């Protein structure tokens, strides 16, 4: 059965969530790749995954194959991971190079994406390629921005300026010094669920004390607040989420530098539409980037940061390891849940689910963001 996004009813969505078909239909996925993942600001990776000049990281998202590079000027650049000759893929896995050479016909590119040389471009001649012939054959650049160490891109090039897009959240997080973030670990996950179920689950505070009972008690989530920041950003806040938890060690990791008194005990987490999931604790930050690969396949990168550079001292190694293990355990539990949910949430009966006023309103907002973008693309 074909599903038409124009016929999805907003009221129905408020009560039951998006219809089951949108979590598995191929035609929906194809549409999302353009209407959501090319039109909007989407995240790809953490900048600290590329610490040195010449670091390269290939990332596929939706129907795009991209390459992140740290250039000679130390800034992050993003390009299509496609040779300008016959569109061969350039880089398969993370690496460090000064010159990027296409494996197909050895066209070579500089770190700024410009074409450096193409062997025997003029056939049987010693003449090197002219500047004029090189000029229009550089790698295709992608509009990008880095915020909270997260690399965002806008493939279409015509989304609103990134500063405008992120402003409501940037202002809310003004009291946090994101320059102090230091990557503790980064872990890749593979899920057989639709990408929207992963986002939906991250914005579901209701499940946390039940699915992750080893980490969170029911009492500690009772004062959850919903945060509706813009047409692209929603989240949740536990005003005493961090201070409610008993310290697991005598020497806890230090919190963000210059943290205000009101934020010392606060935990909050955000979904930045479509695929960026950010959790902010006083002493650590968790970034999950969800990348759709197919209607029922998504990959995730989970990056854990220390909020304060002092946390990277040797004396804190056991605490960092324990933190990373605990957060990865939680994510593994979610991945196992999502893989099973993919089957039940896409059954026809799933349309008869009942969302709850007290807990599910951020999920409802996420579903509406999706619907609005998809319907707008239909014209
Ligand atoms: Fe969870």
UniProtKB/TrEMBL annotation:
Domain Rieske: 41-153
Coiled-coil ranges per UniProt: none
Cofactor(s) essential for the protein: Fe cation
Keywords: 2Fe-2S, Dioxygenase, Iron, Iron-sulfur, Metal-binding, Oxidoreductase
PROSITE patterns, alphabetized: RIESKE
Pfam families assigned to the protein according to its UniProt record, in alphabetical order: Rieske (PF00355), Ring_hydroxyl_A (PF00848)
Any one GO molecular function term: dioxygenase activity
CDD domains registered for this protein in UniProt: RHO_alpha_C, Rieske_RO_Alpha_N
InterPro entries named among the record's database cross-references: Rieske_2Fe-2S (IPR017941), Rieske_2Fe-2S_sf (IPR036922), Ring_hydroxy_dOase_asu_C_dom (IPR015879), Rng_hydr_dOase-A (IPR001663)
UniProt xrefs under SUPFAM superfamilies: Bet v1-like, ISP domain
Name used for this protein in its record: Aromatic ring-hydroxylating dioxygenase subunit alpha
């Amino acid at each position: 059965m074909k599903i038409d996004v124009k016929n999805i009813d907003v009221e129905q969505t408020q009560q039951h969530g998006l219809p089951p078909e949108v979590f598995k239909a191929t035609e929906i996925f194809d549409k999302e790749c353009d209407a959501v993942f090319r039109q909007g600001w989407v995240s790809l990776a953490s900048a600290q995954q590329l610490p040195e000049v010449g670091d390269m990281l290939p990332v596929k998202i939706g129907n795009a194959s991209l390459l992140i590079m740290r250039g000679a000027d130390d800034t992050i650049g993003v390009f299509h991971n496609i040779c300008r000759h016959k569109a061969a893929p350039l880089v398969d896995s993370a690496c460090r190079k000064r010159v990027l050479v296409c494996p197909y016909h050895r066209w070579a590119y500089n770190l700024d994406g410009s074409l450096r040389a193409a062997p025997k471009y003029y056939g049987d001649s010693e003449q090197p390629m002219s500047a004029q012939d090189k000029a229009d054959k550089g790698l295709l650049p992608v509009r990008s921005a880095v915020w909270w160490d997260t690399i965002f891109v806008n493939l279409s090039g015509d989304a609103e300026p990134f500063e405008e897009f992120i402003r409501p959240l940037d202002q809310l997080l003004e009291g946090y010094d994101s320059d102090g973030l230091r990557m503790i670990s980064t872990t890749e996950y593979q899920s057989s669920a639709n990408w929207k179920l992963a986002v939906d689950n991250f914005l579901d505070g209701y499940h946390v004390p039940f699915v992750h009972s080893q980490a969170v008690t029911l009492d500690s989530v009772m004062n959850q607040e919903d945060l509706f920041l813009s047409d692209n950003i929603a989240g949740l806040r536990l005003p005493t989420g961090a201070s409610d938890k008993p310290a697991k060690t005598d020497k806890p990791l230090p919190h963000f530098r210059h943290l205000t008194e009101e934020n010392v005990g606060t935990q909050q987490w955000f979904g930045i539409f479509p695929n960026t999931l950010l959790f902010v604790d006083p002493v650590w930050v968790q970034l999950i980037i969800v990348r759709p690969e197919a209607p029922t396949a998504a990959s995730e990168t989970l990056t854990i940061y220390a909020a304060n550079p002092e946390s990277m001292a040797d004396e804190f190694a056991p605490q960092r390891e324990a933190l990373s293990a605990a957060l990865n355990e939680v994510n593994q539990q979610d991945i196992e849940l999502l893989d099973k949910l993919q089957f039940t949430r896409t059954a026809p009966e799933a349309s008869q689910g009942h969302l709850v006023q007290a807990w599910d309103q951020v999920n409802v907002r996420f579903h509406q963001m999706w619907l609005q973008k998809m319907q707008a693309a239909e014209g």
